Amino acid sequence: MFELANLIRPNIRAMQPYSSARDEFQGEARVMLDANENSLGSAGPELFNRYPDPHQRAVKAALAKLKGVAPEQIFLGNGSDEAIDLLVRLTCRPAQEDSILILPPTYGMYEVAANLNDVRLERVPLTPEFQLSADAVKQIIASEAKLVFICSPNNPTGNLLHAEAIEQVLRNFRGLVVVDEAYADFAAAPSWTTRLAEFPNLVVLQTFSKAWGLAGLRLGMAFASPDIIGYLNKIKPPYNVSEATQQHALAALADAPHFEQMRQELLEGRTWLLEQLPGLPIVAQLFPSDANFLLVRFRPEATAVYDYLLGKGIVVRNRTSQPGCAGTLRLTVGTPAENEQLVAALREYAA
Ligand SMILES: *Cc1c(COP(=O)(O)O)cnc(C)c1O
């Protein structure tokens, strides 16, 4: 059975977290001489001389409202990539002692985080339709891995994984179940954040890098039980989300209509590409997408198409070497003009 304390590395359970100046004193004093900041001001055009809120209270309050969770169920990181690394480090002893489970083809950072932390990697491949087979679910449930990364909608394939299979994993796997929803805003399915109360082993990852259009800002979210979030807070660098990022995220959250308008436009772009691409003779297979990209299988030779597009100044992602993805390129939905350029170039190649 799932028992959180058994999954946390003993040294992390035992250690004292860093106590920052901003942990020991919160609020505004007239004279702030506790953190070795520069009271005179900042070089550069804007004032950033004070350390940021290490718990990002204002951003979490706004996010809690938007996502229908409690602030204590939210962790914020320097991109969701930081949350991925912290989740691996939280649960897995290094020196190949413990393992994580991934479901290829999937997002590359899980494997990098495992390698970086000297943690074993177990691979349970998805089916040719990029779903979890009944046998795969059995393998996951039987595994001793400390956590499994389930990317849904999956990168680079674009599809949602069937909810029933994920639910079986949540009910029976002993480790943490991390559902990476970087592309949830483009998906026609409820977020797994709506199921947090049911599953104490569930961690949901989301990001400001995709639908919010803030990849350069570096802000990722993890949603989980207050106990799991407490452990992530215990091991994070104290000031992992900058003041500039916190201010900008608050402004973005207050600008929800712009987010929604861009989201709709990207969904329309996806629909348009889905209509255009099947008509091209070099397109052999188009995979269903709940994300802001399409995985496309080209014939006779995807890498030749990739090089040809590059020559036209259009860069896409070559996924031909990923398991189950032979002959495929991953095409991000762009502006309407960019989508038209892409299709025009592909049509010309075909001719
Ligand atoms: C893009 C992406 C992320 C986002 O990572 P950030 O560090 O938040 O930019 C996370 N997971 C997947 C599957 C992605 O494709």
UniProtKB/TrEMBL annotation:
InterPro entries: Aminotrans_II_pyridoxalP_BS, Aminotransferase_I/II_large, HisP_aminotrans, PyrdxlP-dep_Trfase, PyrdxlP-dep_Trfase_major, PyrdxlP-dep_Trfase_small
GO MF assignments: histidinol-phosphate transaminase activity
Enzyme class, spelled out: transferase
Domain Aminotransferase class I/classII large: 47-346
Keyword Transferase: yes
SUPFAM superfamilies (UniProt xref): PLP-dependent transferases
N6-(pyridoxal phosphate)lysine: modified positions: 210
Essential cofactor(s): pyridoxal 5'-phosphate
Alphabetically ordered keywords of this record: Amino-acid biosynthesis, Aminotransferase, Histidine biosynthesis, Pyridoxal phosphate, Transferase
Pathway as given in its UniProt record: Amino-acid biosynthesis; L-histidine biosynthesis; L-histidine from 5-phospho-alpha-D-ribose 1-diphosphate: step 7/9; Lipid metabolism
Domain of life the protein comes from: Bacteria
UniProt EC number: 2.6.1.9
Recorded catalytic activity of this chain's protein: L-histidinol phosphate + 2-oxoglutarate = 3-(imidazol-4-yl)-2-oxopropyl phosphate + L-glutamate
Subunit field text: Homodimer.
Family recorded in the similarity comment: Belongs to the class-II pyridoxal-phosphate-dependent aminotransferase family. Histidinol-phosphate aminotransferase subfamily.
NCBIfam families, per database record: hisC (TIGR01141)
Name used for this protein in its record: Histidinol-phosphate aminotransferase
Organism: Hymenobacter lucidus
